[in-house]
Automatic annotation (TrEMBL):
It comes from Amycolatopsis pigmentata. It is found in: Cell membrane. Pfam families: LPG_synthase_C (PF09924). Residues 847-857 have a biased composition (Basic and acidic residues). Residues 489-787 form the Phosphatidylglycerol lysyltransferase C-terminal domain. This is Bifunctional lysylphosphatidylglycerol flippase/synthetase MprF. InterPro entries: LPG_synthase_C, PG_lysyltransferase, Rhomboid-like_sf. Residues 828-865 are annotated as: Disordered. Signal peptide: none annotated. The chain crosses the membrane at residues 20-38, 77-94, 106-126, 138-157, 164-180, 186-203, 223-243, 289-307, 316-336, 351-371, 383-409, 453-474. It is a multi-pass membrane protein. Keywords: Cell membrane, Membrane, Transmembrane, Transmembrane helix.
């Protein structure tokens, strides 16, 4: 019932906050249902009475300026409009409120319809055929109101998201208008422009998002979006929705050309007087089939791959995109004289048909030249050499296959070719068919292997080439200097760090050092994300500056920095422009004031007394110095634990047997009178000025026959031993995906992490482990993940998952997903009872209750800390 009530309250708050957006959707579907237009759209009579267009206005239907926003063209359009309205109007209403969103939607839609009318009228006066065709249309465009409202409300977004939203919407509106060319697209474009002009009236100056100019990473993204749009546009122009030859639809002929039928070829070639037309139609036949169709879109795919490389800042992608656009511009210059000779320049469209295909690649190439200094990321050493060898090998192999195979299958062509003719035709197999219209052909395939070789030779080559380019973009250039680990350990001993800072010495890290070599950041690159292990380590006065310098270093290499497992001090030091999520809760004991007295330590004292009665003693030893009997038992415990698990052992910030072999790590084992190992823990040093001032719990294993409370005994024994040595603190490490709700206000992403932690409970027992540590009455410190760009969160999540589970198989992934979907979560951890700074002690109910954890429950005691 509580869950139902919580869901009901959340839905009520959403409806109250988005009442205009949801009301718009309800009215849209309600009107469509009432008029019976949901399935196939408005009938001709209703279309003329309520739709917008010159025919409607000519009959005096002035209300169509507004009424045309209440219908859509059919069921697919209704669903599409609903998605657009929920996304764009919902965003606007979330930022500027319901009233202003309603005003912005109404004003921008009305202005968009009237503005499109003015554009069409101007085109008609100029004699433009495209405008005359638009003047015959009567349309319904409810999505234009959403575009206009979103453009107006974009001023209330932070600078980063404002630029991205505006560029995305402007590219979408302009591309659809210029390439697809229907009246709805023109109305959306005019409404979006009106939305920008409406900003001063809709968004007050104090509400407008502030921010600096685009960073290097963001500039790369914006430029990549423009390059990708130039690639997608011709595909849009080639789609069936293109209407009336809009200005840029001419570019579709660079990709696709109408295919003649076999009947056309027979009729034309059967007439001797139509020899020229016969040659043209025969040339178009080579466009028929799936292989030529794929080859036709290769220029767009090349540009899309280069756009992804540009987003990553790759210099090779810059050269590729620049060369492609220069080639398009040169092709336009070659064709320009013949186009000018045939042009009469009597219409706007005819002028645009000649000018735009030439100017677009010139504009893109010029933009790349202006911002060339932002693309300086280089691939790993040898990557381009391997790419060149692979591409050259595939080119040679495909060419040889085509020549030999075509000669052997020469009887499958309409005219059996000679070797010379096959060699002369070979370059054409790698070019998009749309570029070969003027090149004469001497033979065409008719059946069998000839069709396969003729149509797929170029597809195979370009597929390998593009896959190779993408592979070089995905690989990162990292510094793997063997001395980095030793230098990091030296800095850690000298300056100290966080409780888990010793983890930076584990294998698998790359290291970044400040210019003076006094600060180090340990990181690993996954999915173009530089994922750190904790914060910077080094000279205290340089840590804040080093964190920001490391972020710039990541940007220069095309990576997204993510500071993982950092304290609140590091999070605040990163400054503005960084977002953070809590990913764990560290439990810490202050040793000088620690005494296991009172009722709250009853379980701990019981475990100590039980060990004494059984003759079990704590034995502190270094794993690398331990006798074989000890290491064999530890390995056996770990193997037994792993064999009982259906999922792999986690890594990254969770240690395993491999991390025990360290000169600075102590193992504390519970050993019986007969030498039997009941349980073992490992402890990482916390340094300051060259001495260990504390210890951090990492590795935990217990025997299946261990006495109840063995882990409580080991932790208490380590606390008392470290206390006698004068240590200041003992950290029980962090429990991932478990935390105390300090203020009750959780952002959606934080709620998502809490949900994942609950769902993973039966698998890894993070929350049970968190509750187990509460037996020692620790103070709690939040552990954060900080990132500069929320748009990169999917890649960051992938990088974190790969870091923790690098060897997970497909079967294990499916098992994990099934467990998360079928597990019924327990209630979350209680809120904090008292807070002092960042240190928090949970209430007794939060430490016990549903999360009580004793030594007989294997879940938390067999897990990593």
């Amino acid at each position: 019932m509580k869950v139902v009530a919580r869901v009901w309250c959340g839905a009520g708050r959403t409806v109250a906050r988005l009442r205009f957006t949801l009301g718009f959707v309800v009215v849209l579907w309600g009107v469509g249902l009432a008029t019976g237009t949901l399935h196939s759209g408005p009938r001709p009579g209703l279309r003329l009475a309520a739709g917008f267009g010159l025919p409607a206005l000519a009959q005096g239907h002035w209300w169509c300026v507004v009424s045309s926003a209440l219908w859509a063209g059919g069921l697919p359009q209704y669903f599409g409009v609903t998605v657009v309205v929920l996304a764009l109007c919902g965003l606007a209403e979330y930022r500027i409120g319901s009233a202003r969103t309603a005003v912005a939607s109404l004003v921008t839609y009305s202005a968009g319809t009237l503005g499109s009318l003015a554009v069409v009228a101007a085109g008609i006066l100029a004699g433009d055929p495209w405008s005359r065709r638009l003047a015959t249309m009567v349309v319904f465009t409810p999505s234009a109101a959403a575009f206009g409202a979103a453009m107006a409300a974009s001023a209330a977004l932070p600078a980063v998201w404002r630029r991205r939203l505006r560029l995305t919407l402007i590219i979408a509106m302009a591309m659809m208008t210029l390439y697809a060319g229907v009246l709805e697209d023109l109305i959306r474009l005019c409404a979006g422009i009106c939305g920008l002009l409406l900003v001063p009236l809709v968004v007050r100056r104090g509400e407008r998002g502030a921010g600096l100019g685009p960073s290097v990473v963001e500039a790369r993204l914006l430029i990549a979006m423009v390059v990708a749009a130039s690639a997608i546009g011709p595909l849009v122009a080639a789609a069936p929705l293109t209407f009336g030859n809009p200005p840029l639809s001419i570019l579709r002929y660079l990709l696709t050309t109408p295919h003649p039928s076999a009947t056309d070829v027979t009729q034309l070639c059967g007439d001797p007087s139509m020899s020229f037309e016969c040659g043209q139609v025969r040339a178009l036949v080579r466009l028929d089939g799936l292989g030529p169709a794929i080859l036709s879109v290769m220029p767009a795919l090349v540009m899309a791959v280069m756009a992804e490389g540009l987003r990553r800042g790759r210099r090779f992608a810059w050269w590729g995109a620049f060369a492609a656009n220069v080639a398009l511009a040169v092709l336009g210059m070659i064709l320009l004289p013949s186009e000018l000779a045939q042009a009469s320049f009597r219409s706007l469209r005819e002028s645009a048909t000649i000018a735009v295909p030439l100017l677009q690649p010139v504009f893109v190439a010029g933009m790349l030249v202006v911002y060339r200094n932002k693309f300086d990321v280089r691939a790993p050493r040898g990557a381009y050499r391997r790419l060149m060898l692979a591409v050259t090998g595939v080119l040679a192999l495909s060419a040889l296959t085509y020549v030999v195979g075509s000669y052997l299958a020469r009887d499958q062509f309409d005219r059996p070719p000679t070797v010379t003719q096959i060699l002369a035709d070979l370059p054409s197999r790698y070019a998009p068919p749309g570029y070969l219209g003027e090149i004469p052909i001497t033979f065409l395939p008719e059946r069998g292997a000839a069709v396969l070789l003729y149509g797929w030779t170029g597809v195979v080559f370009w597929s390998v080439a593009l896959a190779g380019c993408m592979a070089t973009f995905l690989r990162s250039r990292v510094d793997t200097s063997p001395c980095g680990r030793a230098q990091a350990r030296a800095l850690l001993r000298r300056y100290g760090g966080e409780a888990t800072a010793h983890m930076i010495t584990w294998p698998g890290h790359q290291y970044w050092f400040s210019d003076d070599r006094q600060v180090v950041v340990a990181y690993r690159v996954r999915s173009a994300v530089a994922l750190t292990t904790g914060g910077p380590v080094g000279a205290p006065g340089s840590l804040n500056t080093a964190a920001r310098e490391f972020a710039r270093y990541c940007a220069a290499n095309g990576w997204t920095p993510c500071f993982y497992a950092i304290t609140d001090d590091v999070r605040r030091a990163l400054g503005t422009g960084w977002s953070a999520l809590q990913v764990a809760e560290e439990a810490r004991l202050s040793l000088p004031a620690l005494h296991f007295r009172g009722k709250k330590f009853q379980d701990v004292r019981t475990a100590i007394n039980k060990a004494k009665s059984l003759g079990v003693e704590p034995r502190r030893i270094r794993y690398r110095e331990a006798p074989p009997q000890f290491t064999e038992q530890v390995d056996a415990l770990s193997r037994d634990w792993l064999t009982k698990k259906q999922l792999p052992e986690m890594g990254f910030t969770l240690g395993s047997v491999g991390e025990l072999d360290d000169e600075d790590v102590w193992c504390l084992a519970a050993v019986g009178p007969d030498g039997t190992l009941h349980g073992v823990t490992s402890w990482l040093p916390v340094w300051r000025d060259g001495r260990a001032i504390g210890w951090t719990l990492d590795f935990m294993r217990r025997s299946a026959h261990a006495f109840p409370g063995v882990m409580e005994f080991l932790i208490a024994s380590m606390a008392m031993s470290a206390q006698d040595e004068g240590a200041e603190m003992l950290s029980l490490s962090g429990a991932p995906l478990a935390r105390i709700d300090r203020d009750g206000r959780r952002i959606p992403l934080q709620r998502l992490l809490d949900f994942v932690g609950l769902r993973l409970e039966p698998v890894y027992g993070f929350r049970s482990l968190f509750a187990f540590k509460a037996k020692f009455q620790p103070e709690y410190q939040p552990i954060f993940m900080a990132y500069p760009d929320a748009a990169a969160l999917p890649r960051i999540g992938s990088a974190v998952a790969h870091a923790y589970l690098p060897h997970m198989t497909l079967r294990q992934t499916l098992l994990l997903v099934r467990t998360m979907l079928t597990h019924v979560p327990r209630k979350p951890l209680a809120r904090a009872h008292s807070v002092s700074g960042d240190a928090t002690r949970p209430s007794a109910r939060g430490a016990r209750g549903d999360h009580r954890c004793d030594a007989r429950r294997p879940s938390p005691l067999r897990r990593h800390s």
